């Protein structure tokens, strides 16, 4: 069991590093899918089968297809990749800081959950407990993520929409 954990960890970390270092955006998306499969393997080891299946269906399936379509619609080439924007950097810093705060809040309760998981007591990983925690304690981040997905869909439509000049020239 421990060998499987370390193999999944190496797979997940290696593919996550490849997401960052891949020059081609499509290759980065494919490596991100491998990362999601590694994370799903960790969920299975933690007896959270529901989360593993949802992670594969939603993230490795639907979200990655959305990312792939957006990248292909944007038609990125090497000249447009190097453009930097200070607002995008600021938004990235704010997003990273928010993620760090959420991780610190989640790790605050990790020792209690770890002891329950080691003794096979409690209801960690069960769908009922997941729903109660998601819609009771983390309802605000859940709603913010739904707005984020909505804005991603609107952005994909706007990027794919042809302008009036392109329609006249055809």
Task: Describe the protein in words.
The protein contains nine helices and no strands. It is mainly alpha-helical and 170 residues long. Helix content is 83%, strand content 0%. Helix 2 packs antiparallel against helix 3 (49-74) and helix 3 (49-74) runs parallel beside helix 8. The model has no long low-confidence stretch (mean pLDDT 79).
Number of helices: 9
Share of helical residues:
over 70%
Low-confidence stretches: none
Radius of gyration: 20 Å
Assigned CATH class of the domain at 1-79: Mainly Alpha
Short summary:
This protein is an all-alpha fold and 170 residues long.
Keywords summarizing the entry:
170 residues, mainly alpha, 0% strand
Helix/strand layout:
Elements: H1 2-21, H2 25-45, H3 49-74, H4 78-81, H5 86-108, H6 110-118, H7 127-136, H8 139-160, H9 164-169
Helix pairs in contact: 1-2, 2-3, 3-8
């Amino acid at each position: 069991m421990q060998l499987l954990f370390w193999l999944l960890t190496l797979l997940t970390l290696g593919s996550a590093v490849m997401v960052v270092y891949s020059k081609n955006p499509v290759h980065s998306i494919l490596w991100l899918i491998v990362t999601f499969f590694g994370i799903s393997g960790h969920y299975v080891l933690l007896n959270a089968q529901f989360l593993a299946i949802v992670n594969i269906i939603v993230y490795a399936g639907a979200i990655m297809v959305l990312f792939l379509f957006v990248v292909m619609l944007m038609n990125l080439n090497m000249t447009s990749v190097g453009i930097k924007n200070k607002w995008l950097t600021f938004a990235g810093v704010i997003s990273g800081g928010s993620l760090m705060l959420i991780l610190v809040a989640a790790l605050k309760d990790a020792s209690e959950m770890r002891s329950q998981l080691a003794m096979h007591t409690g209801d960690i990983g069960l769908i009922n407990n997941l729903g109660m925690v998601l819609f009771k304690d983390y309802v605000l981040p859940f709603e913010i993520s739904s707005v984020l997905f909505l804005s991603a869909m609107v952005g994909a439509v706007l990027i794919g929409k042809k302008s009036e000049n392109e329609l006249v020239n055809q």
